[in-house]
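Components:
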Amino acid sequence: MRRNQVAVVGAAETTELGVIPNMSQLQLHADAALNAIADAGLKLSDIDGFATAVETPQQVCHYLGIKPTWVDGTSVGGCSFMLHVRHAAAAIEAGLCKTVLITHAESGKSMIGKQPRFTPPDSLNGQFEAPFGVYGPPSMFPIPVLRFMKTYGITHEQIAMVAVVQREWAAKNPRATMKDPITVADVLNSRMIAYPFRLLQCCLVTDGGGALILTSADRAKDFPQKPVYILGTGESVETPMVSQMETFNSSRAFKVAGPLAFKEAGIAHKDVDHLMIYDAFAHLPLFGLGDLGFMPHEETGKFIADGNTRPGGKLPLNTNGGGLSYMHSGMYGMYALQESVRQMRGIAPAQVPGAKISVCHGVGGMFAASGTIIFTNEK
Amino acid sequence: MAEAARAKPKPTPETQHFWDGTQVGELRLQRCDACSHVYFPPRPFCPSCASRKVSVFKASGKGTLYSYVINHRPAAPGFTPPYAIAVVELDEGPRMMSNIIDCPQTPEALELDMKLEVTFEKLDDKITLPLFRPAKG
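Structure:
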């Protein structure tokens, strides 16, 4: 894909985040979509391309009254929205549609109008993982952590610092769910969930949503918001079974998607001003820093523990507070994208001064899938 | 044991040989006749070279502890927390998820790379699960 041919011209989250007991999941989609439409100064009838995950495109399009000529229902977990951005950019460039709306919403806490997760007993996961007591992401996602720690000499204290630093960012964000400062001791004394991870190393469970609107860069200058251009993109999948990953020392999907995006963007790691790495659990930023090539995996724990990713550090990471402290409805990728767009517009609550390039890296279905989007505010 | 039963696998035509094996005390893997790749989970072709000529064989049942969590909450139906969910690296190469029995469910007792051997737990007349325990001797 060519650089900077497509831009984000509308971006918004649901009016409220956190606990939203007065809205179904479908209405959360609509709330986010209507906010993004207003942000872009558009009408719903201007939308001719649509993408969403979990809910079907037909469900959300009908509810909103959208008549698309291009749809994408890619649903690979929490990074689905990174893949939607990549696919939408390709579709716009190919002339299949002009203005794409991407929505995410999840009643993750209140569970209103949301289907519970179900693993069929005759699926491979149902036959070869479920019988051994996996039960939700906290029992699955951290399974590689002990191997990763042993291979690279990462300590419990270093991984605890991921949560501490992200809380520092969250403290600057009025919309963050958790804002009170925490220490490494707080993390390591919080309730055990699935050893080696404790409560403060696991993401929040909240309600919310978000929506993005993309169009061609040529049209983007006529919109009310500062355009945020798509500089590079990457995607991949590996396996829905965490036990069957090629290795627990890295994520193959990360190692495909990340470098693909960097190559397409034509940038080096030193060019990155702002970084989002989807943090459903505290080990993911360590995997991401290594797999995206910022540094050898051995150095990731020390890099974060030394404060390089905290406010004022040289590589601002997860500046909204992340899934650990900002919000996590179950598929957090959309909120990472929203924060990258805010940073590129220059309006983030914890704005990185002068940031010009933002890398937004997502994970989905434990380590099943990955998508990377690199944004810039300069064309 | 909690009141609800643990999740029970339902075999498909492609996996039936594996579950037939556990019932007679065999851990069965597959090997590609063309490229010798040994793989898991079961399927009637080689995921490395795509050959459909593959054979089922009885694995040694020996392996090592690759990684694990000790799950405290929420506990799956049929499990009493804390319990370890482990990934075992088999001597033949493939890895599989399982539980480690005859061993305290603690970080001190569950050392990465410790040697393990398969054992079998019958759930009913159709399904027997492969579990692992610390290797003897």
